[in-house]
Amino acid sequence: MALLEVDNLQTHFRTPEGINRAVDGVSFHVDEGETLAIVGESGCGKSVTSMSLMRLIAEPPGRIAGSIRFQGKELLQLSEREMRAIRGNDISMIFQEPMTSLNPVLTVGRQIGETLRMHQGLDKQGAEARAIEMLTLVGIPEPVRRVREYPHQLSGGMRQRVMIAMALACNPKLLIADEPTTALDVTIQAQILQLMLGLKRRVGAAIVLITHDLGVVAEIAERVMVMYAGRKVEEAPVTELFRSPRHPYTQGLLGAVPKLGSSLTGAARRLAEIPGQVPSLKGRIEGCVFAGRCSLATDLCRQVAPGLEEKGPRHIAACHYARKEAAAA
Amino acid sequence: MSAPLLQVNDLKKHFPVRGGLFSRKSNWVYAVDGVSFEVERGETLSLVGESGCGKSTVGRAILRLFDITAGQVVLDGQRIDDLSPGGLRSMRRRVQVVFQDPFSSLNPRMRVRDILAEPIRNFGLAKSAAELDAKVAALVDTVRLPRDALGRRPHEFSGGQRQRIGIARALAAEPELIVCDEAVSALDVSVKAQIVNLLQDLQREFGLALLFISHDLAVVEHMTHRVAVMYLGKIVEMAGRQQIFTAPRHPYTKALLSAVPVPEPGAIRNPIILKGDVPSPINPPSGCRFHTRCPFVFDRCRTEEPELRSTEDGQWVACHLKALPEAPGPAH
């Protein structure tokens, strides 16, 4: 049994203009200790998926349907009280913007300690001692002084370290990291990625990494799921996905990323473009969600939504023509 | 050879920090502290560095969005940093800007037609209403927006399309230099590729010079001719694209390049992980500003500030080391 099993997850939002199908029938699983990356561009539903896992979607206007089983337990049927016992304890989350997700009027130590006191029943002294321990673990210098400081006294990289300390304080089984390094500078991003990799080895938590940065994916993920317009379009082990992407969207995405080292190959070349824009998610999309931007699209694609088919070992993609394309390449 | 299009000589911009009783000036932020470079006609020079290194401040100083503290900005042989408001007008036509956030840099109440017509009217670039309409329509074609975009307002467009409007507005003034301040940073991968390609095409078509301010090194390597790397208000290294990306000479450039994650799983990399954070520009470190994080620091770095010197192959480096030790790994 996998640690997390998500089946036909649908998160829809009621809006004045109609129902927004932010996540529309997505299934995946995460094994224990595994790192799964969910990639896609703005509006593909990757963040809503992660919020749905934690049940952080306001209902209404949102509505989550389908099934989310964590260690065999159906999360969608738990009461809010039972869910609170899981959040921060068994499943915890790191957000993109550490400044807005930390409370500015509480000390860092108090915020790390809060989860410990709530979930593990530690007292004030115990929680502070553990908070100092966690700050040391995430590599914050002078943890004894820092634990009494407020978020505004820390730099962006340090705040993200505090977020990670907070998320790992209760030894969660699953860590959801939503764009954990997007707001950081590259040298700080390198520090945080190294920290996450090191901690994963020591703590053994599974990670769901939400990101749009394919470089970060290649760096730390083991398996990758590509989302587009609220649906999963491809999933494969990381090397397989980068080596032989099958879905035209994934291929386009990989071609559109400028890579370091382009000056070695001489003059600047044009980047591959994906023409057009992401479709509106209001109103049901008939056929393949990518058909409007795909160079291979035919009438079949515009009428019938392709199911996820096996295209290689542990490699699935939702495309009528994917196999043909791979053979041609 | 004629003079370069833009020359920046020892540019300084210090911002006062007010604090304490009666908001007295208590300190200075040394945002840009002695920066010199040139941009040739039709060339792309990229300013790269991390947040707070002063790259955007340099861009804004060139646009004269504020007065500079010291130094000179020379456009086509004429000093523009001390121009009167009247004299600035013609300079403003020649130097335009594209900002990062296409959501906050377009007036939501104006139709695209009016956004694009404004600079043309302002600078008297059209002689008749018909010519104005023709110019506006041509701009929309140039940035590959549909003609029916003209009657719509900014909120009806996606991020990438808005950035196209922003670029069209910059082109409307028929500039020679466009300052692109993180112009593609807020865009999604597939849209970013579209805009990067568009900028390259426009540069070729109109012979535009671009000052491309960005923190995204892969994009910079893809489209630039030359690069200046900034750290805490100073240029630490400046050279041609290939030199910077394949043979960086400054330890900071090397660390910066090695920190970029490569979209290639299992790639053999040996990133130089810099310790700590960028120090505050209010109280920059003595000597070399990078010495607090440099893996190769030695005594001289702490006291004596290295000058930006040119090496025999035209690379400019501010470092006391003649050559980088091989120790912490290659950049690629």
UniProtKB/TrEMBL annotation, chain A:
- Domain spans labelled ABC transporter: 4-254
Main location group = membrane
| PROSITE patterns the record matches | ABC_TRANSPORTER_1, ABC_TRANSPORTER_2
Q: Which UniProt keywords apply?
A: ATP-binding, Cell membrane, Membrane, Nucleotide-binding, Transport
Q: Which Pfam families match?
A: ABC_tran, oligo_HPY
A Gene Ontology BP annotation from the UniProt entry: peptide transport
Q: Which GO terms describe its molecular function?
A: ATP binding; ATP hydrolysis activity
Location(s), subcellular: Cell inner membrane
Q: Which residues form the signal peptide?
A: none
Q: Which domain of life is it from?
A: Bacteria
Xref: InterPro entries: AAA+_ATPase (IPR003593), ABC_Ni/Peptide_Import (IPR050388), ABC_transporter-like_ATP-bd (IPR003439), ABC_transporter-like_CS (IPR017871), Oligopep_ABC_C (IPR013563), P-loop_NTPase (IPR027417)
Q: In which family does this protein belong, per the annotation? A: Belongs to the ABC transporter superfamily.
Q: What does this protein do?
A: Involved in beta-(1-->2)glucan export. Transmembrane domains (TMD) form a pore in the inner membrane and the ATP-binding domain (NBD) is responsible for energy generation.
Protein known as: Peptide ABC transporter ATP-binding protein
Species name = Bradyrhizobium valentinum
From TrEMBL, chain B:
- Gene3D superfamilies on file: P-loop containing nucleotide triphosphate hydrolases
What PROSITE patterns does its record include?
A: ABC_TRANSPORTER_1, ABC_TRANSPORTER_2
Asked whether the UniProt record includes Nucleotide-binding among its keywords, one would answer yes
Hey, what's the signal peptide range on this chain? none
Any GO molecular function: ATP binding
One Pfam family from the record:
ABC_tran
The ABC transporter domain extends over 6-257
InterPro entries referenced in this protein's UniProt entry, alphabetically: AAA+_ATPase (IPR003593), ABC_transp_ATP-bind (IPR050319), ABC_transporter-like_ATP-bd (IPR003439), ABC_transporter-like_CS (IPR017871), Oligopep_ABC_C (IPR013563), P-loop_NTPase (IPR027417)
**What's the chief localization of this chain?**
membrane
GO:BP terms for this protein? peptide transport; transmembrane transport
- Its membrane topology, per UniProt? Peripheral membrane protein
Report keywords, A-Z: ATP-binding, Nucleotide-binding, Transport
Which superkingdom is the protein from?
A: Bacteria
Q: Where in the cell is it found?
A: Cell inner membrane
Q: Does the keyword Transport apply?
A: yes
Q: One GO CC term of this entry?
A: plasma membrane
Coiled-coil stretches noted in the UniProt entry, renumbered to this chain: none
Entry similarity comment: Belongs to the ABC transporter superfamily.
Q: Spell out the PANTHER family in the cross-references.
A: D,D-DIPEPTIDE TRANSPORT ATP-BINDING PROTEIN DDPF-RELATED, TRANSPORT ATP-BINDING PROTEIN
The protein's role, per its UniProt record: Involved in beta-(1-->2)glucan export. Transmembrane domains (TMD) form a pore in the inner membrane and the ATP-binding domain (NBD) is responsible for energy generation.
Descriptive protein name:
Peptide ABC transporter substrate-binding protein
Source species = Bradyrhizobium valentinum
